[in-house]
Amino acid sequence: MSAEEEKKALQIVDELEQRLVKLESTHRGNHPLLNQLRLLKTNLQNSKEYLSSKNHRVAFIGPVGVGKTTAICGILGLLDEKRNTLLDAASGRTTLCEVEIRGGKTNKILITPCSKAELNGYLRDFVEVLRQRHEGRAKNEDETIDLTNEVERCLRNMINLRRRHSKSPQGRKDELNPTITDEALELYKRTQDPGEFLKEIKNRLKADDRTVTEITCQDGNFPEWLKKNFSEINQGKNPSIPMPKKVTIEIEKPLFGDSHLEIQIVDTKGLEGNVEREDLDEKFQDNRTICIACSGFNDAPEQAILDLFKHLTESGLENQISSQALLLVLDRNEEAAEVLGEDGQVSSIDEGRSVRLGQIEDVFRNRLKMSDHQFPKLVFFNAKNETNLKASGHLLSIVKGLRKRRIQTIQEVGGAIDEIEKNREKAQAQSAFEVVFRAIHSWSQTSRKQLAEVHQIYKSLVDDMANKEIYASSIRASVNREGTWFNFDFYYKLAVAARKKAVRSFGDSVSEIKSVLSNFERQPEMRATHPFIRQLLQAVDDNMEKIYEVAANKGRNAFEAKLKEDELFWGKQKKEWGQGPGYKNRIAFVTDSWFRQNVSSKQEQEIQTRIMADWHKFVDLIESLASKSKPVI
Predict the structure, then answer these.
(1) Which residues does residue 293 pair with via DSSP β-bridges, in sequence order?
(2) What is the Cα–Cα distance from 535 to 415, expressed in whole angstroms?
(3) pTM of the model
(4) Residue 109: which H helix or E strand, with range?
(5) Which of 101, 210, 399, 572 has the lowest CB atom count within 10 Å?
(6) Phi-psi region of 100 (alpha: psi -120 to 50; beta: other; left: phi over 0)
C-alpha cells in the first residue's frame, strides 16, 4: 500500500462527502435512507482519520524469557558483527520494563522514571526479600516473596549492594567451589531492623541525584553506544538515571525503511500467570497496533498465549486475533530440523516448520475451537541465523493490510453511494433491500428483549485469587499497593469481568445479525445491497466495542474509589502475609466478604440499566436503517 494510493483515496473522500450532503438534501423525508447515509458518513470519516495518521505500533507479547527482545533485535537489525543483540537479552528475565523503539531525528534514549511511590514499593519489597532470606525461608514456600531477577538486579546496582562471587588466584570467578557474598544481606544482618535498613538503602540510592531522563549519542558509533547505555539503564548502573518505568529508544532512520509510515516497536513486560492485563488489552483494542504473540518452537502456541487468546475471545476481541495479531514462532538451535513427522525425522528446516505449522493449527482448532479464518497469521523466525527481511516483511504486510482495508471501506462507501444514486429506485434493487430490511426488523424485535446479565462481577476477581496460575507474590504486590499492580490489578479485573458479562449477554444476538448479513453478502441476487451490508457489518463491530467498553468502565468505576480508600480493608489484607499456608484463599475470602457487605443491588442495577440503554440505542440504530417509523439517528 503506497503513499500515492492513500493520497488518492483521501482525495476521493472529499468528493464522496459532497455527494452524501447532496443525497441528504434530496431525501429529507426518507428516514431509513437518511440513517443509511449517516452510517456511510461515519464510516467514511473514520477511514479518513485512520489514513491521515501514519503512526502504528507493533507490540511484542509473550511469556517471560521466550525471546521477545532477541526477536526484536533480529527484525530491526540491532545486532553487532557477531550477531549478538544490542539490547540486553539472555536466558530468563532480562528486560526491566516496557521498551519502545521508534524512528526519530537523532539517536537517543528517553527514560520515563518510576514514580516515588512505585520506587518505594520496590524498595519495601526488597527489604522483605532480605528479611525472609535472613530467616531462612525456602524459596518454594507458599508465602515467600521473590522480586523478579531484573528488578532485584537493578535495585542492587543502584544501591551498590551486589552479590559477589569468589575468585580464583588467577582472578577468575571460582566455578568449581563458588562462594557468594550477598552485600545487601550482610548489611541487613548488621542493622537487624527493617526500618533502619530501608532508610540506609534510600540514602544509598540517592534518588534526588538521578535526574537525567534523556541521553543522546554524540559519536559516530551508534551500535556500541546503544549497547553500553541501554545495558546501564536496564541494569541500574548509571548513577544519574532513575529507575525506569519505560525506556524509549529513538533511531535516526525509519525502522522498516518505509518512510511514509511511522512504526514504533514495543517490547512488553513478559506474561507470567495472569493474562488479564490492561497494558496488553489496550494494544489489542487499538486498531493501529499489530500484536506479535511470541512462542518457543517446541511449545508453540505456549499455554500463556492460549490463555491470552481465550481471554481476548471472551472479551469480544476475537476479530483482532485474525486481523491484527501474528504468532511468531521462535526457532532456535536448529529445532525445526529435529521435528518428527509421520514418516520419521524431517529432512529439512522447512519441512520441520511445515509439520509444526499443522500441529499448531490443530491446537487452535481443538483447544480454542477456532475456525481456520480466525487463526492469527503465523511466521517462523530464527533471529540469530535468518535475515530480518522476511519477518519485517510480514509485519509490514499486516500494517499495510489494515490501511488497505480502510481504502476498501472508502471504495465500498463510494459503491453504496453509486447504488443509491443510480439503482435504488429500480425494482430489483428495491426487492433486495426489502429482504434485508425485513431481516433487520425481525432481528430488532427479538434482540430488544435481550437482557444484560451483569451482576456479581467481583466473583471473577475472587476466583482468580485462588487460581493456581496466579502467583501469591503478584497478589501480595497488589495488596501492598491498594489493589494496583500491573500483573494483578483489582480494579481492572472488575472491568474485565463486566466486559465479559456484557459479551456473554449480547454475543449471540450480535453473531446472529452478522451471520444474517454475511449470508446476504454471499448471494449474487442481493448484489445491490452488498456495499451497504459491508458498511453495516463494520458499524456493528464499532458500536459493540463501545458498549463493551462502557460496561468495563462502569464495572470498574462502581467500586474503585470506595475500595481503594478503605484503609481498614487494606490494613487487614496486608496482615495476612506471613500467617502461614493459604494466603491466596484468605485474601479471596476477605475480598469476597467486602463486596458482599458493600455491593448493593442498586449499584448493580445502575450498571445494568446503563448497559441496557446502550444496547437499546444500538438496536434502534440498526432498525432505523430499515424502518420508516424510526426517526433519524
Answers:
(1) 61, 327
(2) 11
(3) 0.93
(4) strand 108-113
(5) 572
(6) beta
